[in-house]
């Protein structure tokens, strides 16, 4: 049974949604309070400054996205399905991020560090998923750390919009292509034939 969310939790979700849609650099605290229909004092409960509020919102976004990605990944039956589910769920989690949000994320030192930390965590998770698939015989014996690092570099390019600029593929589609490319490269001959 889901628990009732508090007003600060709802407000933080609303703030994240606003930032994803419009970015965060140009907002003042007064504008944020007006858009979220709350007082500046209420916003200060989420962060003592606009800087802290921004970082807290970005962290919340990545925690929220990670929880959803892991929920979707856990529902998959095989190692291959889990890897595909993981990458596809990341694509869906990033879909609401507007170009303005991406530019602001890249330009904001601390927010960018939060993003880079999450990319590193995603690479570690991919490495684990590949290792599980190798152990289960679904994937051939590959260098999981190299593949995870390559995926992380591609994830960075997707997030910053460079894949879209170079290929025309939007995030979710790019993640689906990435999953297909990786699976085709690591699936064991035995698993591929079944």
From TrEMBL:
Tell me the keywords, alphabetical order. DNA-binding, Repressor, Transcription, Transcription regulation
Q: Which InterPro entries match?
A: Homeodomain-like_sf, HTH-type_TetR-like_transc_reg, Tet_transcr_reg_TetR-rel_C_sf
Entry superkingdom: Bacteria
- Point out the coiled-coil segments of this chain: none
What terms describe the molecular function in GO for this protein? Answer: DNA-binding transcription factor activity; transcription cis-regulatory region binding
Query: PANTHER family annotated for this entry?
Result: HTH-TYPE TRANSCRIPTIONAL REGULATOR RUTR, HTH-TYPE TRANSCRIPTIONAL REPRESSOR KSTR2
Protein name listed in UniProt: Transcriptional regulator, TetR family
